Amino acid sequence: MTLKTTELPRLNLTNPDPKALAAEILQALKYRVGKDATVATREDWLTAAIKVVRDRIVDRWHESTKEAYEAGAKRVYYLSLEFLIGRLMRDAFSNLGVMDAMREALATLGVDLDVIAALEPDAALGNGGLGRLAACFMESMATVGVPAHGYGIRYANGMFRQEIHDGWQVELPETWLDHGNPWEFERRERSFEVGFGGTVESVTSKDGRLERHVWKPHDRLLAVAYDTPVVGWRGNRVNTLRLWSGMPIDPILLDAFNAGDHIGALRESNKADALSRVLYPADSSEAGQELRLRQEYFFSTASLQDIIQRHLSQYGDLLTLPDKAAIHLNDTHPAIAVTELMRLLMDVHLLDFDTAWDISKRTFAYTNHTLLPEALESWAVPLFERLLPRHMQIIYAINAEILLEARASDQFNGEEISRISLIQENGERRVRMGNLAFAGSHSINGVSALHTELMKETVFADLHRLYPDRINNKTNGITPRRWLFQSNPGLTTLIREAIGERFLDDIDALTELDRFAEDASFREQFASVKRANKERLAALIMERQGIRIDPSALFDIQIKRIHEYKRQLLNIIEAVALYDQIRSHPERDWMPRVKFFGGKAAPSYHNAKLIIKLANDVARVINRDPAVRGLLKVVFVPNYNVSTAEIMVPAADLSEQISTAGMEASGTGNMKFALNGALTIGTLDGANVEIKECVGDENIFIFGLTADEVAERRSNGYTPRSAIEGSPELSQALAAISSGVFSPDDRNRYRDLMDGLYQHDWFMVAADFDAYADAQRQVDAVWRDSPDWYARAIRNVARTGWFSSDRTIRQYANEIWNVPA
């Protein structure tokens, strides 16, 4: 019997006519979501709208892939443990040019695009600046036409969802994948085996010569690919973000299950699941360290196997790999890829060591994101050798090559050679992943001018002397599509009306806005846009936290990962000092101010979590004190993420970038704030240096010690007690915090934290306090003169187009990857 089928009408993939789009949405709702419009939920409408636009993206995705293949184009492969992509709906709609048409189409169906867009969960694939930078880079690579794949892990729960209970951070699973991800495509056919542990055997020829090594892992599992299309501006190109999910080879041990061992029967499934469950498992335990190393190898080997398979299918010869593939290591997390590529080339594809090493060095490039020694990953040799025995052999072989080269150069003493070594010998023997990434790459870049120079002088000083041509600078950038056009549509419209539309495609055209800084009418319109953004943030805070704030107050915002070097503590202490001054001198003309904080602390980072509690304790006291008369409020915003940033950044008047000089590699929050018309208060650290050069000294508030001065104080025996005792405001604030004024339920809660500032103050909080407080009073003085403030804010917008990730990616493409852009 022949079944009669009904042919569905083809979706119109090119016509942005709202009526046609509305019909497509209804069709997607019915046939792809399985709902009728009369019973569809808001989540159903969201899925249907995404599917309709995703179809258009897929068309361009296939075209982009085919174009690159037929042209034999060199591809970029960007390996990153984090991709903090946030919500994708607005990004895709805007970049494809269908935002207005989709808004109108949905409206005809009784659906508000903004309402359903807010339902899309943030993809929990990152933690902070590193992951957001990777997301900006992926979008910019598609925008400027660089064929690229991003590779990472498809975390089911990501970092964690932060809740604040009685002022304390509480970590909960981030369940962003509970209802599926309408943007992704499972690629079960792109599955690769991943092994751990086991033994290494040598294979010799009949005449006794060593031919190759064979690694026989004890544990084996599969890495399964999930692809998300990444669309560039105006649909110029669509690239691929490929994320790996762990899957057992044998999901269930049936014999064990039937024998009654129900838990043991699922052992292999649980092992695989753990690899793609949580971002950055706590590494305070040996088990946590092992899981993190497993994660890093898991995604690195899957990505390299995928890259090699694609290359061989097209070109058939791995000797040409460096000519057709640029593999970029985003920080040290994927550094194990250096040894894994060597293993694949030698043990699987039978190349000799010298050839494999030459191919690897010409293929890999490495971006360093930190000068903190503890953040340059290292792994205990016994752990590494147990999990990856063949890789440990390869590391010893690479190390011998490097150390022999260093000795042959006659420019290093024994101590310097030991610092070059891939193995840390003093104390516990550890594998230095930063040194491995450096040695195995032809290019090593910093992410701001200052950071790059400090790399040469500090963490990589000896390797830089050995390989003086490798280190270069690529100052970070942000995508203006996400961080201006989408997050601040009011300002985008205002700019378009003033200077035309060229800046939408060439962000450098923002410089034309500079002349409007002295235009009184434009300043008023600019202030009106800022006020609307602040009202939106105030409404959000009221809705989520029940705190009423005045949009006419100065919005002073510090949102970033909670870490002592980022000095949220300095900001909180200054808030306490300001609180004391407002109460002691009510006759002064104080400027109303709201201090916002947001960010997550690593679960095992005690002091960072204590700083969050302090911020909330200080907020509780200040916000309830009638003596303050509403002149100062403190707000800690829970679960800071990309979507929250998209509301907070456009609302900021003052951007806090106050890290200890020499410790922040670059920062990208500083760029986002400046592009949205916030003035920066900051140290000469990271990209603050370049922002100052771009916007001008008069349009930024710089304070505090320089990186050289910080280093000098540390080396000359800095005594923080004298700095504290010489500052009445600081000493009073520390005494209040230490004595329990803000923690009446536990008067000793902050005693050790405050005593630490007296004893060592590694992050120079006391040393910089007076300069910071003075800079804040300068902020008050400029804020009091609102025309001057907004003129400076407009100049920040006009002069920060250079910090576009398009510019950064073009520099990577031309100077590192050797691909056209």
UniProtKB/TrEMBL annotation:
InterPro entries: Glycg_phsphrylas (IPR011833), Glyco_trans_35 (IPR000811), Pyridoxal_P_attach_site (IPR035090). It catalyses: [(1->4)-alpha-D-glucosyl](n) + phosphate = [(1->4)-alpha-D-glucosyl](n-1) + alpha-D-glucose 1-phosphate. Its EC number is 2.4.1.1. It comes from the Bacteria. PROSITE patterns: PHOSPHORYLASE (PS00102). GO terms for molecular function: glycogen phosphorylase activity; pyridoxal phosphate binding. The modification N6-(pyridoxal phosphate)lysine is found at K672. SUPFAM superfamilies: UDP-Glycosyltransferase/glycogen phosphorylase (SSF53756). This is Alpha-1,4 glucan phosphorylase. GO terms for biological process: glycogen catabolic process. Its cofactor is pyridoxal 5'-phosphate. It is found in: Cytoplasm. It comes from Mesorhizobium alhagi CCNWXJ12-2. Keywords: Allosteric enzyme, Carbohydrate metabolism, Cytoplasm, Glycosyltransferase, Pyridoxal phosphate, Transferase.
